[in-house]
Amino acid sequence: DAGITQSPRHKVTETGTPVTLRCHQTENHRYMYWYRQDPGHGLRLIHYSYGVKDTDKGEVSDGYSVSRSKTEDFLLTLESATSSQTSVYFCAISDSDRDEQYFGPGTRLTVT
Amino acid sequence: GNSVTQMEGPVTLSEEAFLTINCTYTATGYPSLFWYVQYPGEGLQLLLKATKADDKGSNKGFEATYRKETTSFHLEKGSVQVSDSAVYFCALHSGGSNYKLTFGKGTLLTVNP
């Protein structure tokens, strides 16, 4: 299995609070991604990174920001959490832009 | 833009039955195609892939053939087991400057003993 961990694995937070999710990899892969998974929508890309300090928006980026200061860590921040951001968040990594992606175990976030 | 359409579930089969999950796609260029599997409470795992037309990906008894003429990548298994119960996602990657995977909505498979 690819060495990808996500923390926390579960979190409950209140509307309006900031939340940061962490993805850590030990594979030294260049590309990292954040997806959210919701019933009826499959997985949707939030943000991705193609190198240290190089990030770009995905299809559902509103209300989210990311940072990547080291190859191994990719942080996802919900600046002011809303109930619509209740979801399961997955981090993924890949070694090139055409390779398969490897997924972390997910973080279940509930915003009350 | 890119899109993936896969058959809606849930799909319920008896053990040893034949499985087909349909997947069709729309993409520019020559995408790579993937099937991922998600077991309950876990992340997605790559099941198989194909990177060019007429390639057949296979793994754990599952197969899928990249059909460019019909823009399809249907997943098949000749004899399913209870342990195959999971959600299956078809996905494509068009590469180049577009790094992201485009996923179908997933198909829940339940295999009964």
Describe this structure in words.
The complex is a heterodimer of chains A (112) and B (113). Chain A is mostly beta strands and 112 residues long. Chain A has no helices and 11 strands. In chain A, strand 9 and strand 10 form a beta hairpin. The radius of gyration of chain A is 13 Å and the shape is globular. The termini of chain A are far apart. The model of chain A has no long low-confidence stretch (mean pLDDT 93). Chain B has strands at 3-6, 11-14, 19-21, 23-26, 32-38, 44-50, 56-59, 62-65, 75-77, 86-93, 101-103, 107-112. In chain B, the strands form 3 sheets. In chain B, strands 2, 5, 6, 10, 11 and 12 form a 6-stranded mixed sheet that branches. A 4-stranded antiparallel sheet of chain B has the order 3-9-8-7, with no helix packed on it. Chain B has a two-stranded antiparallel sheet with strand order 1-4. In chain B, a hairpin with a 2-residue loop joins strand 7 and strand 8. Helices cover 0% and strands 50% of the residues of chain B. The model of chain B has no long low-confidence stretch (mean pLDDT 92). Chain B is mainly β. The A-B interface holds A 31, 33, 40-45, 48, 50, 58-59, 90, 92, 94, 97-98, 100-106 and B 32, 34, 36, 42-46, 49, 51, 89, 93, 95-101, 103-106.
